[in-house]
Structure formats: C-alpha cells, structure tokens
Amino acid sequence: MRSTTRPRTAPGAGPLALLLLLTACSASGPPDPSEAPGGTTPVPIASTTPVGPTPSPAWWVPEAGTSWQWQLSGPLDLSLDVAVYDVDREVPATVVEQLHERGIRVVCYVSVGTVEDYRDDAAAFPPEVRGEPLPEWPDERWLDVRRWDLVGPPLLRRFDECRDKGFDAVEADNVDAWVNDSGFDLTAEDQLRFVRRLADAAHERGLAFGLKNDLDQVTDLVDDVDFAVVEECARYDECDRLAPLVAAGKAVLHVEYRDGDDRLDDEEFCRLTDPAADPVFTGISSLLKNLDLDAARTTCPGRAGAGRPGG
C-alpha cells in the first residue's frame, strides 16, 4: 500500500463537482469486548465469520482481465469503451445509470480505513477513533479499525449509499493501517477481522468487494474478496504477491503512476507489465495513470484490460 502517497480527490473539489464530458454519453456479529471499551452496545451488522466465494454468487463479480477505468478527479469522462468504471461514491446516481445503460459495471470507491475531513459525513467518526494523519494528506487520518462499534455504522451507511445508487461493487481503500503509522497498536488479526466484516457487509447488500492493496494479507483474504485494486506493485517489484488471487481466477485491477518522483513512463510500464517477462501479469488489468487519478489512462496494446480502441 502506498498510503502516504495515495492519490485522492482534492479537498473542496469532491466528486459531486465533477463535470460530465458531453461526449461521454448521449443521454452480523458483535465485536470483541476489547473493541468496545466501556461496554458499548455492539452494532448488529455483518457476521465476523469469513464468507468464501460460491459457484454462483448473488452479486456481480468482475472477470479476470476485464477492461476498466479508474477516475477520482477532474471532468468525469464516461466515453471510454471499457467494461468497468471505478468512481467515487459521491457521484450522482445518474452517472451510474448512464454507465449501466451502456452495459458497463460500476465500482464505488470508499475510503474505509481513514476519515477525510472534507467528506460530508466526517463528523460521524468521533475523536477517539481518529489516529495519525497520512503524511501527504494532513486532512485525512487513520481510523481505529478495532472499534467497529464506532466506525462500523458510518461505513455501513456509505455501503448503503453505494447500493442505493445502483453501484455493482465496492473498492474499500486504506485497509492496511496495521503496517502504517496509524497511531493505534493494530495487529494483523485486527486488520483481517475488519476487512472480513466489510466484505460480509458488501455481500449482504449485493455488492462485490474489492481488496485495496494490503498485499501482506492477500493469501489470508483470497477467499473473502471478489477482486483487488492494487497500486504500484510493478514499481516496487511485489506483483508476485498477487499470485493467489490470479490463481483463483479473480480480477486484479492494477495501476502504476507516471508522474512524481521515480515513477514510470509508458515504455517502462509496458515492459514491466509484460506477461512474457512475468507470467503473473497474465490476466491482470494494468493501467498507467496520473497520480491525481484524472481521466487520462495508458494501456499496452494487446494486454488484458486494454479494452477496445478508445478504451
């Protein structure tokens, strides 16, 4: 996880301010006692029991190698000829409808492991669950994921919003606080429990659940998640850690960044993600994006996830 350099929408320029390009379209178990100090009432939501994949899940699941677009800032370009869009949960339901009309599935981006001060529901996360700020995002702080009694309700309301707007899946960001300077003494088990609760909650709402980064726990979570969204694994030479997901036939939506210090240009991106050089990239859907995740995207011709011309 590149939590300290992770791109996201700038404060004051939230997704509701995104302008649609006119060319786009014509038209549940209780928390552990240690997680609820003071005997707080547990939240009756998703069970903590891991739910593995079924042969025919009751929710849509992206296919390995699918074409996709990820955009969280700038004028929202809906014109691409791809199978999946990943956009912020605050975009209007009409955006989801427009994409569905073209047969495109839509993933709902939600930061579940941090609180962003500019979000409309930021006040729902009390001071006691707010930890250290992300170094490059001083208005964003890690959450104490052990306190499901406090962080669970607002996060599940966000999942409800994704469902009610018609999204098909959730991309749950910032789920690796345990390996970052969060301000909390989190363990691997704390993080696994949190992610599994979220996956259960998404599935209960008919949404696929995407694991965001957290490569250290891929093996533990491969049966709990439906797909993954991964940043900069080629740059850091760690894409092989995605092998359990690839072997399970699950979609891996992968992004490298072209701007910033020591990042990749188009040629190096295509070289590093070539399945002939590294078989793990067979079926992985790789994009080269700008760090602010605007509309621009680069794919390598003939690769999984490239889409048709224009997409």
Automatic annotation (TrEMBL):
Residues 1-27 form the signal peptide. This is Endo alpha-1,4 polygalactosaminidase. Residues 67-295 form the Glycoside-hydrolase family GH114 TIM-barrel domain. Gene3D superfamilies: Aldolase class I. InterPro entries: Aldolase_TIM, GH, GH114_TIM-barrel. It comes from Kineococcus gynurae. It holds the Pfam family Glyco_hydro_114. Keywords: Signal. Residues 28-56 are annotated as: Disordered.
